[in-house]
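Archive transcription. Copying these from loose printouts into the bound notebook so they stop getting lost. Printout 1 of 2:
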Amino acid sequence: MANRKIIHQLTLPQFESMFPNKDACRDYLTRNRWPSGAVKCPRCGNAKVYHLAKAHHWQCHQCAPQGYRFSVLTGTI
């Protein structure tokens, strides 16, 4: 967690520099949601999830017979 940067307040130019596109935002969320780099299922906590072709999307087969698909945005506002 030493690499996590806590953001308190940003100016608009600072924000735009950090997050120039949606992928940069999703990369930031991924790093902060799973700081160890091990993505886990938000339903069951299973670490054996499969990365899907669509960026920032994974699938867990432990908590759903057909697989539970989720993204970095699952469970966020």
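Printout 2 of 2:
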Amino acid sequence: YIITYANRPIATFALQDADSDNAKWLTYVYVDESFRGLGIGTQLVNFAKEVCRKINVDMILLDTLTPKLDHFYEQRGAKWVCEDRSLGHPTSLFRMGTH
């Protein structure tokens, strides 16, 4: 999914299949720096939840590539699962219900 403003891409995210039929990975979440702080990230998360509900997916999984994003996702209903170091640096794995 790509969000545009004045024909310019300003934000993106993807929902990818997980090992479970009842879950999707939320990936490639990005908001252009000049548009941060306007609530677009929250709208992206809410829209991802809506898409998942429509296709009967109950769980969204995500991996924060930077710890400073952990709080953002927690405020939007994500629950911390564990720390992952498979990328060579610590990241946090979260799960979030779609309802």
